[in-house]
UniProtKB/TrEMBL annotation:
It is found in: Membrane. The lineage of its organism: Bacteria, Pseudomonadati, Pseudomonadota, Alphaproteobacteria, Rhodobacterales. One of its GO terms (cellular component) is membrane. The chain crosses the membrane at residues 21-44. Keywords: Membrane, Transmembrane, Transmembrane helix. Residues 1-25 are annotated as: Disordered. It is a single-pass membrane protein. Its main location: membrane. This is Neutral zinc metallopeptidase. It comes from Harenicola maris. Signal peptide: none annotated.
Length: 286
């Protein structure tokens, strides 16, 4: 992916090197790391809920900490460039397909723990989007997890992670996330999980649209980049994560979709480049 030396977004809130203080809480939409933690906890028969609720990351203050390393600075620059690309792309899509203006979100970079209006977050929850404050949250150390533990290598795989969380922002702006939240409030656990799967697969489809525009409008993709993104989508499928944790995949517990579903919906968005073709909620078969 061609990103070095390119313009970065100003909608970055860098909290890395800082630590949060205050009450606890839970993260918002799209926490990939949380899935891994929960699966590992279920496998070993331990309660890992404490790992998903950071006691020092609620409605408190942010305090100064350590300076950033060269690698952390490079990761921040990379995320800023990817975020800037999403802004250019979604501004065009909103104008051409929705006849509307795109309200760009803020992306919060953090290390270890932080706070959001959706509650506290830690590195264990992975990247997530909080509909309440319209911010995406990312601990850049997750990129190492993506490559070393999940087998999703390459800078475009990391860019896909950012694009997926921004896709949740698009869903929120469209009013999709509030509707899903309302429906899940009165649903059974199985129904709630099914709604979550459709939400995540739509975000994957939107990410495919982003990849198509990045290739055709911005010319930032290099050979093999698209395969990196598709592989990343496969590696974080519920069935693959459960299987890698030594468990037999249990479809009724899925919240993000299978590897095949995630890759297929990403490909659908890439091939179509139309928001209307990403309606997972009306699809009879995912």
């Amino acid at each position: 992916m061609k990103w070095q030396g390119r313009r970065g977004s100003r909608n970055i809130e860098d909290r890395r090197g800082m630590r949060a203080a205050g009450g606890g809480g839970k993260a918002g939409i799209g926490g990939i790391g949380a899935i891994i933690v929960l699966i590992v906890g279920a496998y070993f028969g331990v309660d890992v809920s404490g790992l998903l609720e950071d006691p020092g990351a609620g409605q408190g203050s942010v305090q100064s900490g350590q300076p950033l390393s060269a690698q952390e600075q490079a990761s921040g620059e990379f995320v800023a460039v990817v975020l800037a690309d999403t802004e250019v792309i979604w501004e065009e899509i909103f104008r051409s397909q929705l006849n509307a203006e795109y309200p760009a979100p803020t992306l919060v970079l953090f290390s270890g723990t932080t706070r959001s209006q959706c509650g506290g977050a830690s590195a264990a929850t992975g990247p997530f989007y909080c509909p309440a404050d319209r911010k995406a949250y990312l601990d850049t150390s997750f990129f190492a997890t993506l490559q070393n533990r999940l087998g999703a290598q390459g800078d475009f795989a990391a860019a896909y992670v950012v694009a997926h969380e921004i896709a949740h922002h698009v869903q929120n702006v469209q009013g999709i996330l509030p509707q899903v939240q309302a429906a899940r409030a009165n649903a059974t656990q199985a129904q709630s999980n099914a709604l979550s799967v459709r939400t995540e697969l739509q975000a994957d489809c939107y990410s495919g649209i982003w990849a198509r525009y990045a290739q055709e409008r911005l010319g930032t993709l290099e050979r093999g980049d698209l395969q990196e993104a598709v592989n990343a989508a496969r590696q974080i499928g519920d069935d693959t994560l459960q299987r890698n944790a030594g468990k037999t995949p249990m479809p009724h517990t899925f919240t993000h979709g299978t590897s095949e579903q995630r890759a297929a919906w990403f490909a659908r968005g890439y091939e179509s480049a139309k928001l209307s073709d990403c309606d997972t909620f009306s699809a009879r078969q995912l």
